[in-house]
Amino acid sequence: MFAPPSPSLPRALPAEHRERLMAAAREASFPQGTRLFEEGGRADRFWVIRTGTVELDMRVPGRRPVTIERLGHNELVGWSWLFRPHVWHLGAEAATPVRAYEFDAASVLALCDEDAELGREVTRWVGEVVAHRLHSARIRLLDLFGPYGAGVAG
């Protein structure tokens, strides 16, 4: 299975914008098994993973949530804060102990409103993350439901 590299924070933003964004960060830690957010809940923050693994999951009626993707070092957890109606589309749980940078969405959105160039760069970064995750989901769906080998890039 092939998936392009995820657009992580260090590669995604120019240094000056990365520094402005990181100035709004606070450190957060989550023990294994901690739910970061629930599908359908209010999306008011996001994280960039420093260490550990977070699993994105989706509710399936009558079953435990199904893992959609595993995220690790330098990856963005949560993008729903940027797009109305600011509601989580998935759930997220710490699969291992996690240390992360946490960002308050309202603060970051205010920074983006103050600095249009920063806003464009953050929107581009988050958009690339969403595009990457949609591509990964498509490949997984082809692996599950397509003819043998349909999800393999070639």
TrEMBL record:
Tell me which CDD domains the record gives. Answer: CAP_ED
Q: Origin, by domain of life?
A: Bacteria
Give one Pfam family, short name only: cNMP_binding
Gene3D superfamilies assigned: Jelly Rolls
What range(s) does the Cyclic nucleotide-binding domain occupy? 9-78
Return the InterPro entries for the record.
Answer: cNMP-bd_dom, cNMP-bd_dom_sf, RmlC-like_jellyroll
Q: What is this protein called?
A: Cyclic nucleotide-binding domain-containing protein
Q: Origin organism of this chain?
A: Streptomyces variabilis
